[in-house]
Design a protein that fits this description.
The chain is α+β, with helices and mostly antiparallel strands and 96 residues long. The protein has one domain. Helix content is 17%, strand content 28%. It is built from two helices and eight strands; from the N terminus they run E-E-E-E-E-E-E-E-H-H. The longest helix has 11 residues. The relative contact order is 0.16. It binds zinc ion (ZN) (2 copies).
Length: 96
C-alpha cells in the first residue's frame, strides 16, 4: 500500500493494484524529498548494476519520453545528456 504525496499532503492509499509512487527527487520547502505522486511510467534507462533497466517509477511530470513507449527518469536523463549531449538524446535512444 503506497504512500502518495497529493495536494493535501502524504496520503496512505489502500489497495493492491495501485501504481508505485514516483521516485524522482524534488525540493519541497527547501528540502530534498521523493516526489511520491502516483506513477504512470517506469524508467527504461540502463540500471546502475548494469543488468536490465532502471525501472524507477515516475509520474507524468518527471518522465521524459525518448521514444515510443520509452521513458527516462530525471537521473537517467541527466546521465544520457552528459554522455551524448542534449541534441542527440532522442535519436540515440530511438531504435529504427
Ligand atoms: Zn514525480
Ligand atoms: Zn532511470
Amino acid at each position: 500500500m503506497p504512500f502518495y504525496r497529493l495536494g493535501i499532503g502524504i496520503v496512505h492509499m489502500k489497495g493492491s493494484k495501485l501504481p508505485a509512487p514516483c521516485a524522482a527527487r524534488v525540493l519541497i520547502e527547501g528540502k530534498e524529498a521523493a516526489c511520491l505522486a502516483p506513477s504512470g511510467f517506469l524508467c527504461d534507462g540502463p540500471s546502475k548494476s548494469g543488468k536490465g533497466t532502471c525501472d524507477a517509477a515516475m509520474c507524468e511530470r518527471h518522465a521524459t519520453q525518448v521514444g515510443p513507449n520509452s521513458h527516462l527518469c530525471p537521473s537517467c536523463r541527466t546521465e544520457a545528456v552528459d554522455e551524448i549531449g542534449q541534441r542527440n538524446l532522442f535519436t540515440h535512444l530511438v531504435q529504427p
